[in-house]
Task: inverse folding
């Protein structure tokens, strides 16, 4: 149980294009999802908290117009990297909290490797 | 501000030897502490967590960790390393609002 998927697992795009990454909770409902960014050999940095049916809350220093988050249903959150540039290349990971158990445990997706050329 | 410190990015341990990964934290509120493991090309998997109550926490795969408030530590141990323990391990701290702050991680290498 408590499986989170991400799609795509890898994406390569040209500079200036937009890329959408999906995060799905497969066997539970998630009112809250989180988006992280992980640089090579570094830790995960929380980018934003995504709440179903409301606007995402972004961490300090994260451009909300650059990283658009939509959490339209209890099982899906999307992160769109708009006008991507090479410095946006990174490993993006999402996580989700189970709405029913409402514990402090986050279940993580396998991540999406974004490469911007 | 919440922060987590994990020293030593790479940790080598012989098969059958003790695994010890150190985690120290800084928190202005009573912390919730977690250890996650990440295998190559996979998501993070929860090993164990401390919220309240018993300070010695047992997790999956034979791992355990002890919360020591006086030392602001939450070190992870396993008595006997197995080859399958080779992975990256992250210590994380929650601020009570489910926002996690992660340490830099330890890459564990198990030597046969």
Result:
């Amino acid at each position: 149980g408590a499986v989170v998927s991400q799609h795509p697992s890898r994406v390569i795009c040209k500079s200036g294009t937009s890329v959408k990454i999906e995060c799905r909770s497969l066997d539970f409902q998630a009112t809250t999802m989180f988006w992280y960014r992980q640089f090579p050999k570094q830790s995960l940095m929380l980018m934003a908290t995504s709440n179903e049916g409301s606007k995402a809350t972004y961490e300090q220093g994260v451009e909300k117009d650059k990283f658009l988050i939509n959490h339209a249903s209890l099982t899906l959150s999307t992160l769109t990297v708009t006008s991507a540039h090479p410095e946006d290349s990174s490993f993006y990971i999402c996580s989700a909290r189970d709405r029913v158990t409402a514990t402090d445990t986050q279940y993580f997706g396998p991540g999406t490797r974004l490469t911007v050329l | 501000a919440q922060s987590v410190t994990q020293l030593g990015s790479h940790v080598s341990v012989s098969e059958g030897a003790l695994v010890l990964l150190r985690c120290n934290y800084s928190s202005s509120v009573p912390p919730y502490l977690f250890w996650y493991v990440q295998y190559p090309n996979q998501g993070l998997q929860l090993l164990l967590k401390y919220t309240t109550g018993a300070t010695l926490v047992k997790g999956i795969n034979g791992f355990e960790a002890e919360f020591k408030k006086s030392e602001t530590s939450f070190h992870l141990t396993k008595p006997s390393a197995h080859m399958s323990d080779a992975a990256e391990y992250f210590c994380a701290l929650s601020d009570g609002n489910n926002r996690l702050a992660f340490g830099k991680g330890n890459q564990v290498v198990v030597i046969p």
The two ends of chain B are 41 Å apart (CA to CA). The CA atoms of residues 2 and 27 of chain B lie 5 Å apart. The interface with chain A takes residues 9, 32, 34, 36, 41-46, 49, 51, 90, 94, 98-105 of chain B (CB under 8 Å).
